[in-house]
Amino acid sequence: MQSILKFADDTKIFSKISNKTSSNTLQDDLTKLVQWSHDWQMEFNIQKCKVMHMGHSNTGYKYLIDNQYLQEVRDEKDLGIMISSDLKSAAQVVEACKKANRALGMISHTIKYKSKSVLLSL
């Protein structure tokens, strides 16, 4: 059974894939979704469409949209959160540290008077 999530112009379709039959069912649903998008002139940007395989025993089936294989990714940013195929938070922590370091670097380069009260308010 496939599930669909939508947020604004973002669509996710996902399912537990346990065998070739369930993989074929997901591929059929992707094909129907693309046909619907053509019928209603709401085309998907295929370059932004990706597949993420989760789980240790995942077979990693390939999926097509409009005869183009979807790019397979291990990490993806979604609504500001890094999601990884192993469901560990390391990628999110790395991104948060990079963002904090950029902010600290900007403060260090632009603020001359660095008293405790000024830095805390920043």
Written account of the structure:
The chain has 122 residues and is an alpha+beta fold. The protein has a domain at 3-73. 39% of the residues lie in helices and 21% in strands. The protein contains three helices and eight strands. It has helices at 20-39, 90-110, 116-121, and strands spanning 3-7, 10-14, 50-51, 64-65, 68-69, 71-72, 75-78, 81-84. The strands form four sheets. A two-stranded antiparallel sheet has the order 1-2. The chain has a two-stranded parallel sheet with strand order 3-6. Strands 4-5 form a two-stranded antiparallel ribbon. A hairpin with a 2-residue loop joins β4 and β5 (68-69). It is elongated. The model has no long low-confidence stretch (mean pLDDT 88).
How are the SSEs placed, and which strands pair?
Layout lengths: L2 E5 L2 E5 L5 H20 L10 E2 L12 E2 L2 E2 L1 E2 L2 E4 L2 E4 L5 H21 L5 H6 L1
Parallel strand pairs: 3-6
Antiparallel strand pairs: 1-2, 4-5, 7-8
Describe, in short, the structure shown:
This protein has 122 residues and is of the alpha+beta class. It has three helices and eight strands, in the order E-E-H-E-E-E-E-E-E-H-H. It has a domain at 3-73.
